[in-house]
């Protein structure tokens, strides 16, 4: 039997707010910054499907899903904090997210974000054309 190929990840996520994270982890079931996490279970269904798609069991253990969800929420919070840090504005903009994802390690994420933004604009244009053609048909029938 041939040896199984070894798969290694070249990406290691290290949150930029390690001190806050360490303080929060000592508080039991508390999330980032000592606040109780309100995101528990928000991504569970999608994570189960993603984990299955990437080779995990059809019904992964709840503990595994919970850990993956914590990692995901930590990453999202870290990206948002990084995006907000320079300007200290109250709202995130697309440009803030582009700047936060401009690190070489996030190049694929930035490309995916750009692709999704393009598709969103494409859908808006298609809807506008569809509504315009409906308006033209309605004016011809009158």
UniProtKB/TrEMBL annotation:
<dbReference type="GO" id="GO:0051123">
    <property type="term" value="P:RNA polymerase II preinitiation complex assembly"/>
</dbReference>
<keyword id="KW-0539">Nucleus</keyword>
<dbReference type="InterPro" id="IPR009072">
    <property type="entry name" value="Histone-fold"/>
</dbReference>
<dbReference type="Pfam" id="PF02269">
    <property type="entry name" value="TFIID-18kDa"/>
</dbReference>
<dbReference type="GO" id="GO:0046982">
    <property type="term" value="F:protein heterodimerization activity"/>
</dbReference>
<dbReference type="InterPro" id="IPR003195">
    <property type="entry name" value="TFIID_TAF13"/>
</dbReference>
<keyword id="KW-0805">Transcription regulation</keyword>
<dbReference type="GO" id="GO:0005669">
    <property type="term" value="C:transcription factor TFIID complex"/>
</dbReference>
<protein>
    <recommendedName>
        <fullName>Transcription initiation factor TFIID subunit 13</fullName>
    </recommendedName>
</protein>
<comment type="similarity">
    <text>Belongs to the TAF13 family.</text>
</comment>
<keyword id="KW-0804">Transcription</keyword>
């Amino acid at each position: 039997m041939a040896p199984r190929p070894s798969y290694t990840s070249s990406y290691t996520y290290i949150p930029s707010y390690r001190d806050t994270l360490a303080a929060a982890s000592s508080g039991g079931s508390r999330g980032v910054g000592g606040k109780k996490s309100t995101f528990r279970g928000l991504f569970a269904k999608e994570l189960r499907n993603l984990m299955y798609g990437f080779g995990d069991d059809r019904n992964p253990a709840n503990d595994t899903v919970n850990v993956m969800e914590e990692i995901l929420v930590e990453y999202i919070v870290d990206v948002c904090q990084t995006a907000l840090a320079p300007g200290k504005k109250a709202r995130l903009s697309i440009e803030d997210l582009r700047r936060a994802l401009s690190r070489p390690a996030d190049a694929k994420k930035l490309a995916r974000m750009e692709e999704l933004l393009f598709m969103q604009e494409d859908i808006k244009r298609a809807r506008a054309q569809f509504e315009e053609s409906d308006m033209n048909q309605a004016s011809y029938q009158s």
